[in-house]
Amino acid sequence: MTRWLTPDEQRSWRAFLEAHRQVFAQLERQLAADHDLVHGDYEILVRLSEAADRQLRMSELAEATLSSRSRLSHAVARLEGLGWVRREACPDDRRGAYAVLTDGGHAALARMAPGHVDAVRAALVDRLSADDFADLGRICAQLLD
Amino acid sequence: MTRWLTPDEQRSWRAFLEAHRQVFAQLERQLAADHDLVHGDYEILVRLSEAADRQLRMSELAEATLSSRSRLSHAVARLEGLGWVRREACPDDRRGAYAVLTDGGHAALARMAPGHVDAVRAALVDRLSADDFADLGRICAQLLD
DNA sequence: CGAAGGTAGTTGAACTTTGAACTATTGAGC
DNA sequence: GCTCAATAGTTCAAAGTTCAACTACCTTCG
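Above: the input entities. Below: the structure tokens describing the complete assembly.
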């Protein structure tokens, strides 16, 4: 038997739904307007910049950015076109490939980061008390296995 | 000067990012697998079912579902194709149009709702204590103007 | 009234994402 | 060593979204 959501639960659920959508719409808009980039592609650059040697296997990168392998292939192709990422053959596993952040990509990320962080603050961080924001993080972390 | 995110803030921000993505991926998957529907279209049906006379102006519906007018046009076209929604001319404003939930659409929603609620519980509600879930709702509500 | 500008909604093209099919390579078990 | 299933990654077609026209109507104001 389905346990329906209580009115309170329903409100919470919708708030979660809409809060997320609103925050993301702002971030997507900012990145698209200022740098003509989708947020997912920005995230790829971030992950690569944090990785050792600024490179990751395609599948690690897919997992890190929670995107499908297919999406990642396309995204990396785009970023390769911009000269921000380069593919490199994997010596150990000849099926494999590394995505490597180029110097140009690193520089681009450095250019974009301030605007993005400002947007994250404006859309999320600065709209909550420090405690509430910390709680939000803690609760969301619990949702992730 | 950009105020960078502190490591704690960064963690919270990413948890929010990923929690949302994970929850939504599950919902999208369930609706797509069981009913071949994207979540956005499901939401349109929900909003219509809650509206007086089960109908809304296209632009009200767009706002309620936080989607662009264009997206809504396409989505309603899809739902019209399924026989779940019907467009109706607006008497007061001849530019306008109503989207109306048909009986078939209402029945379809009734069929889909239990599975969807189960999925929402599995992905979100039941993974948190009641208090945490309530907090999550409260905090998210604060993000919405 | 009539022009000008705004609003409602649709359309078509470009782009992104998805899922399935495909190639190539690896590894496990006999 | 061979065979066969599993893994890494790409590619293609189908589907959804976005953006920029575009049509149609309404409203404001000289």
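Note for the figure: The first strand of chain B starts at residue 55 and ends at 57.
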